[in-house]
Design goal:
Length: 141
């Protein structure tokens, strides 16, 4: 029997950590999209984590209390959902940085020196060595 790919736990935990740290609901929406994409790509359904369901429950309650005769209903809905300006682009940057770190760490685990791994990943992602090194230093603890 083949082992199931459970790597999605790491990704969802990362989203939850970001949500807990920033209180930015963009991370909830990343998790929802990720679960749906995983199902489309693998055929394996991932249930939404409890923290996602908790957020959706609160949002649903608030949305159902809206009065649809309000003047600017779309602004109120945007306020309820709570995604701030530029949070999507900054969350994507954060995801990219984590990918860079994990790629560097994978090369180090394969026996490369950190400088070699950073240089290799910088070339692979067409980024400057300095920017990749800064990302690595930020996540290395």
């Amino acid at each position: 029997m083949a082992n199931k790919d459970n790597s999605y736990h790491l990704i969802l935990t990362s989203f939850e950590d970001e949500y807990d740290e920033t209180h930015d609901p963009v991370w909830v929406w990343h998790a929802i999209e990720f679960c749906s994409s995983w199902h489309r790509k693998t055929g394996e359904q991932i249930h939404y984590p409890q923290w996602v369901l908790d957020y959706l429950s609160v949002i649903a309650e608030m949305m159902l209390k809206l009065d649809d005769t309000m003047e600017d209903l779309s602004a109120k809905i945007a306020e309820i959902i709570g995604i701030r300006k530029n949070s999507i682009s900054s969350s994507i940057q954060s995801i990219r940085d984590k990918v860079l770190f994990f790629e560097i760490q994978a090369l180090i685990n394969q026996g490369k020196k950190s400088d070699e791994a950073i240089d290799s990943i910088a070339r692979a992602f067409s980024l400057s060595t300095d920017s990749v090194a800064n990302v690595y230093q930020r996540f290395k603890r």
